Amino acid sequence: MAWNMNLIDRRRFLRGSGLALALPMFGSVSGPMARGADPRPNPKRLGCFYFPDGVPMPLPEDPAYKDWSWFPQGGGSEFTFSKCMEPLESIKDELTVLSGFSHPRSRSVHGHNNADQFLTAAATGGGDKEYENTISLDQEYAQYVGDQTRFASLVMSTDGGTGTARGTHTISFDRNGRPIPAEHRPKQIFDRLFVKNDADSARRLLLSRSALDEMLEDARRLRRSLSTTDRRSLDEYLDSVRQAEIKVEKAKRWLGAPLPSVDGDQLNLELTTEEPRKYLQTMFDLIFLAFKTDSTRVATYQIGRENGVGRSDHLARAVGFNLAHQLSHETKNPDGWKNFGTYCRFLNEEYGRFIGKLKATPEPAGSGSMLDNTLLLLGSASSAFHLSRNYPLILAGGKQMGFKHGQYLNHAGDNFQGGPWLGKREPWQDEAKGEDLPLSNLYVTMLQRLGVQTDSFADSTGAVENI
Region Disordered: what ranges (predicted)? Predict the structure, then answer.
């Protein structure tokens, strides 16, 4: 009999000498299912992934177009991948490629400024105006589902931390638009998820709650003496304190629950970007384990930082090149499209490997495969050289949420903008040849299928049909 992990008592663990040892899942453990109880619904997971620098987009008349253009040729269910996308051929029926989507408030902004808004749709672009962001798609879903797992979300990137405004190292932003620091060290991620090594957790949680109570009381007294503007700033601060209070309460609920038992011997947790292919595989494997153990149902991974800054630019060494960003500038050179396409092919290989692993794994908490119950979005906030339009997007998984795949939805039509940069005017400065759809429309559709009762997200104007 296959047991539903959602029905296993999370408090089953051994105690001794002040330590708690998590038990593995036992198929023989008696639970409500054995007594004929209805199984709980399948979990619904969301993973969002970002890569920088756009994609190869040689013009249709270019000899490299057939082999190295990122977007497929054809449309609907009749389409073919180029060599750039070939690694996804075996899972073609599990994904949808989309074109003709972008965020309206960023279409006239240099492409390297846009990772900050990929999941938010906020107007964070260039210029001297004050930077302001909004909640990201993943955190919108985390607010809905995050209290059902130990961790509301898992935020990762190759570079780690938050980066800078318009040079972010994270694609996750909280409900006040503040960046959520991303973790980049595999061992720290694994330890956070699966290693219980803090005997003072309960004591420190108690102290945290006491400190929060004192801060709130002091803030209430202070508020009476402040101006309207300062009160607004204080209210934002108090909201942060309340969110911390919620996290403390949640941590208390999970304090006695055992951590999942996983075999980490197959993972090299000391990897860095000096071994780029293995590093990328390990980061995807950590997300897989976090999903499989139901440690979280929301994950983001920013594969690279825009503008060729940081350790993520070294990932190109996996396929024999020095720096990834440089490849997008050199497409006018002999074999330029091939070189850039080879790097994108590498990213597709590892992303495809991750999707295939989810597909091959039966859902631990219900029916179908893990991929059937996991919705995945991969994309970039530019397409052709620095062009903030027609984002390259791949939606995968979620078949048990109603998604139909095995198609290329080409909303860009024949309005093709691309070609190499010849050192003069850049594509993002040119007048658009067509009108993209708001990417937030796709986000609304995703949230709805994930179970969130909403008709809007950011600047959406509706939902996406036929997907």
Answer: 162-181
